[in-house]
Amino acid sequence: MPPHFAPASDDALPIWPVWKGDALPDGAGTWPEASGFAAKPGEICLLPGADGALAGALFGLGEPARAGRERLAFARATALPRGCWRLAAIPAGFDPDEAALGWLLGQYRFTRYKGQPEDGPRLVAPEGVDAARIEAIAAGEFLTRDLINTPAADMGPDQIENAARDLAGEIGARIRVITGPALLEHNLPMIHAVGRAAATAPRLIELSLGDDGPLVAIIGKGVCFDTGGLNLKPGASMALMKKDMGGAATALGLLMMLARTGAARGLRLRLLIPAVENSVSGNAFRPGDVLTSRKGLTVEVNNTDAEGRLVLADAMALAAEDRPDLMISLATLTGAARVALGPDIPPFYCDDDRTADALSRAAMAVGDPLWRMPFWTPYEPQIEPQIADLDNAPSGGMAGSITAALFLRRFAEGAGRYVHLDIYGWQPGPAPGRPKGGVGQGARAILAALPEMLA
Predict the structure, then answer these.
(1) By Cβ atoms counted within 10 A, which residue in 35, 366, 408, 425 is the most buried?
(2) What is the per-residue pLDDT for 72?
(3) Residue 71: pLDDT above 80?
(4) What CATH number does the domain containing 225 carry?
(5) What sequence ranges are listed for the domain Cytosol aminopeptidase (predicted)?
(6) Which pLDDT value is given to residue 69?
(7) In the beta sheet, which residues pair with residue 372?
């Protein structure tokens, strides 16, 4: 079900958002105090009318200094009964756009394999909110979540291609797909090497939108399932590997947001997805193999489970040949990033301070957190083995997210500016607006920051 607001209605019931310690709205009477309402985050107090019918609700925001993301999603996801609701007031420090988006994100349910979405409470878009824009942003996030949540049996390289074709048709983008042995003919050897052992052929999916303006290249890692290859993962480590295409899913959601909000106007957008499954068979690539990339750099494979950077490298080298003004890579790339920052805060890497500052500010402003990490040049020797130009899995286990970013940066040469996001793509437990499961990270921050990133 696409995210949507309710049409304006005189019958919509009022919600009063209340900060802890603030005076209650006129007309609330003594009922909130008698029922113990304390305006704790997400707390709901249903208000009775004179006839005993439901007359409205108070919604607790907690303390302003500790406010969390997508606060109003609490109301959508928890105690409000079905019906049509409206915001009766906008208290100081309360962002109507963030509230409206949080409500829509709270509508999300993944029901492909179980049941139908319930018809929950609906919200009239708050006054001053661009409802169409908020719905477009939520729709892009829903697309990302649906793609990540779908198991690999139903979301392999061919289904990623189908999703890309559907999006291209909707937004008027051009699409090109290079599949199987044709990858070798088009000099994309590392994408082919990683994906050749799978039952479904590897491919490079390319979408292009716009003919004038700055060129923005977006590369999303599309490893639809990662067994680890011949360096086979333990079973427990494979449990979430359907999400290893989270970079591709986030990139497609971002492109939908850019197109539907109108932010794509005046830009040339190029989206590249190397879509593969890292499987095991007699022709799987091996530890110790040396691969020659599109760029001509040789790569010693010291771990077949560090495959994401290999497929990204060929796609990035292809994108860099057109000298984009900005290149962005999105990838569920390293466990090291999760150890450093946990599941909620993806690190990002960028050498240009102005671009990085714009992205950091936007991330905080729209509640899509990111944290800048360094391209630490003294670690470069760690990605340079003895018998090849590059090492895909440096030994030692330290600074794994940084060394992966340094590896990718070698293939971004030619781009005006380069930003790499090492995302997780998964919500490990339910939170406001973010049910357990697949989640987009970084797309809303990029959408908000892009004009300044290109300035």
Answers:
(1) 425
(2) 62
(3) no
(4) 3.40.630.10
(5) 303-310
(6) 62
(7) 348
Cα(336)–Cα(347) distance, integer angstroms: 10
Asked if 154 and 67 sit in the same domain, the reply is no
Same domain, yes or no: 162 and 227: yes
Give the predicted TM-score (pTM) of the model: 0.96
Q: What is the CATH number of the domain that holds 67?
A: 3.40.220.10
Q: Which residue has the higher pLDDT, 60 or 237?
A: 237
pLDDT bracket for residue 166 (50, 70, 90): very high
Number of domains in the chain: 2
Catalytic residue among 309, 338, 410, 434: 309
Mode of pairing for the β-strands spanning 268-278 and 203-209: antiparallel
% of the chain exceeding 70 in pLDDT: 96
More confident residue, 241 or 79: 241
Task: Kindly state whether residues 186 and 62 are assigned to the same domain.
Answer: no
Q: Is 364 found in the same domain as 405? A: yes
Query: For residue 1, what pLDDT is reported?
Result: 72
- Domain extent at residue 230: 134-453
Instruction: Classify residue 127: in a domain, yes or no.
Output: no
125 falls within a domain: no
pLDDT value for 74? 57
Rounded Cα–Cα distance for residues 164 and 175 (Å): 8
Asked if 289 and 378 sit in the same domain, the reply is yes
Q: Does residue 233 have an active-site annotation?
A: yes
Our answer to whether residue 40 is catalytic in this structure is no
Domain end residue (candidates: 103, 122, 146): 103
Are residues 141 and 50 part of one domain? no
Distance of CA 263 to the CA centre of its chain: 17
In the set 20, 109, 165, 233, the catalytic residue is 233
User: Residues 195, 48: one domain?
Assistant: no
Has residue 318 been placed in a domain? yes
Q: Quick check: is 271 in a domain?
A: yes
Residue 291 shares a structural domain with residue 392: yes
